[in-house]
Predict the 3D structure of the following.
Amino acid sequence: MTVFTYDDSKRAEACRDFLLSSGRMSKCKMLTILPIPTTRDGIHLTGSEVTLASVCLEAEPGEIYLGYGIPDFLHDSLVNAGAVAVDAGRDEEFLLENARLTALATLAYILSRGDVSVDCLSVGVVGYGRIGRELVRLFLSVGARVRVYSTRRETVLCLSSSGVDATEISVGDPIPEADVLINTAPAKIFDENSPVGRDMEILELASGNFFGEARVTRLPSLPSRYYPVTAGRIYGEALLRALGV
């Protein structure tokens, strides 16, 4: 099997090595591993000047493409060319495993600064999707004080009834105070003009600029940065599940 990747990260390398060593891709002649996410601007592959249109033109019958968040037009073009397009973003098991790795890598990032005692931190988690749930579970397990901020009343009521501090928020609310505020919500919620405490840190795990001029640390592709081998393996496992091999 020939493997080509537009992604030179350690995660892509680990994914390639895992698939080659699995012995389950013997019937595949050519595999192309696309970045995670496949694109951010809808025109180019993430981290590359390669256009999605050029990827379509290079597709060959029988070739397999593995991506994450593959745009519909790219997916359809690959299929029309006789290729197989597998989107790990549609694999619930991958999404859950990736969320766990993202939460663990967030903790690793905080600890990497070397001057933090996690059990003394107050952590605000914005959003309670897959990543939000994993962040709450992990930070509570290491003794941090955690509060969830959600626009969904039912989520807040459910968390509160189970003993987790949670606050319902509305679009335009001021940015809440915490030692570390971790945003997982892919939408603008807080008033970007709200003052931010001098020692407060905002970690952005969603893609976008939702805090205006506030001091924000953007942390894309955390699993690839801290746990590339595991991240690559779960990416490859999504492909094997999709192919049924």
